[in-house]
Input
Amino acid sequence: MSATVLVGAQWGDEGKGRAIDQLAPDSDIVIRYQGGNNAGHTVIAGNVKLALHLIPSSVLHPHPVPMLGDGLVIDPEALLAEMDALTAQGIDVSRLKVSTNAHLIMPYHRALDAVIERHLGRAQLGTTKKGIGPTYADKAARIGIRVQDLLDLKIFEQKLEINVREKNAVLAKIYNRMPIDGRNILAQYAGFAERLLPHIADTGRLVDEALRAGKHVLFEGAQGTMLDLDQGTYPFVTSSSAAAGGACTGTGIGPRAIDRVVGLVKAYCTRVGSGPFPTELLDEVGEHMSTRGVELGVTTGRKRRCGWLDAVALRYAVRVNSMSDVFLTKLDVLSGLETVKIATAYESDGERYDVVPPTQTLFHHAVPVYEELPGWDDDLSSAKTFADLPPNAQRYVERVEELADTPINWIGVGPAREETIIR
Output
């Protein structure tokens, strides 16, 4: 067996699409294990720039089979639109497999997501309003509709009727919204079923067969560890298990099948939406990161909050993911800064913390303790080896490696596929 999990080590947006693109050629299957079209991955390969939200970026490569696993929530309209966009660019999507066990995002989920977020007012969570949270809520409540239900429209209609009746009561009586027409949904999703039928499969069985045959499987997470439903900065998190453990429940394989966990780490930190962010910068340095890093959400277009690399959160991510090695991205963005900083500890309510504080209140009050290193001015994009980097950039990478106590085996020095140093 040979299986690698690729997981975001921060608040998402670390560059997982680029890393998947880098690792995919050595894989036979690339399977996404959680989230929905609230995630966004950008891949630049030659003259092709793709913004993907559901389909693994390995679709650019002819060999690995792209899959969407059990743990996803899938908006079929969004998925088909993404497939059509790829086809229009000459990219083959015929190999895509979609798990029978994945849950379907329905129109009422998107409606509820929007009204609930609006009614939260100042307590908004900053959701993408794609219906992700309400879909996972239905899954937990055991009233969700799954991809496999598209294969039996009688069952689909029965489940839809129950859900529409309940959701319309909530929309009309609590939020004063117009009811949703279940008949229109049935007709629309029957059309989706016809188009998706060739792609629906028992992905868990296919992954197991591949592993038993000695093939390599790459498990792709969305979002990041600090947005994990259980391990993240709750309640400012996503609604699924973004950490490496989610690869097991999200694809139907056991933990002994996994022999490597690669953590994606941006050379600084970003966060989209609400929630605590100890190293956030609201000054010209933060603007430097935002501008040079083109820090806009792929899915929402929202400007990302930027800050220094947080080694406390990184050590936490190493622990909860059993991380074996690190893929460091966007080192080039830090070029041009006189000094660079790394948060090595927090101070909160009079106490010093070298680990993530145990309560939400302490984390919200956390003030970073920084270590400062000399910066560099050089353009890194032409660097092909670690030795090609300027000494101060090498020192920064080595210090991050020391603080994470985990080897950094890839370094991104530019946005293109070939602008990666492999150590």
Q: What stands out?
A: Residues 153-173 form the longest helix (21 residues).
